[in-house]
Amino acid sequence: KFRAVDDTASVDITYFNQNYVKDNIQRGQSYVFYGRIEVEGTRRSMANPVYEREGAENAVTGKRSGIRKSG
């Protein structure tokens, strides 16, 4: 579990049963996350979103999410 932030918002991201994700996502790098956002009060969260580095070749997420930075 970690929080992704950009200049406009933040979202808590949780990956269940995907331990390899912690080795693939690096603090300070920019990523694009795509998935359903749950809202509870002022907190936003995503479970098991698709992700990739921002600007990756052959991108699958497109430009659908404003949350791009991990950290």
Give the SSE map.
Blueprint lengths: L1 E4 L4 E5 L6 H4 L6 E4 L3 E3 L2 E5 L2 E4 L15 E2 L1
Parallel strand pairs: 2-5
Antiparallel strand pairs: 1-2, 1-7, 3-6, 4-5
Could you give a quick summary of the protein structure above?
The chain has about 70 residues and is mostly beta strands. It has one helix at about 20-25; strands at about 1-5, 10-15, 30-35, 40, 45, 50-55, 70. Strand 1 (about 1-5) and strand 2 form a beta hairpin.
How would you describe what is shown here?
There is one protein chain. The chain is globular. It is built from one helix and seven strands, in the order E-E-H-E-E-E-E-E. The model has no long low-confidence stretch (mean pLDDT 84). Helix content is 6%, strand content 38%. The chain is mostly beta strands and 71 residues long. The termini are close together. The protein has one helix at residues 21-24; strands at residues 2-5, 10-14, 31-34, 38-40, 43-47, 50-53, 69-70. A hairpin with a 2-residue loop joins strand 4 (38-40) and strand 5. The strands form two sheets. The protein has a five-stranded mixed sheet with strand order 4-5-2-1-7, with no helix packed on it. The longest helix has 4 residues, at 21-24.
Unreliable parts: none
Question: Number of helix segments?
Answer: 1
Shape: globular
Task: Give the SSE string.
Answer: EEHEEEEE
Distance between the termini: 11 Å
Overall strand count = 7
Q: Which class of secondary structure composition applies to the elements?
A: mainly beta
Q: Determine the strand fraction and express it as a percent band.
A: 35-45%
- This entry's quaternary arrangement is single chain
Main sheet attributes: strand count, strand direction, barrel closure:
5 strands, mixed
For the residues shown, what is the average pLDDT?
84
- Percent of residues in helical segments? under 10%
Q: What value does the Rg take, in angstroms?
A: 11 Å
Q: Kindly report the spatial arrangement of strands forming the biggest sheet.
A: 4-5-2-1-7
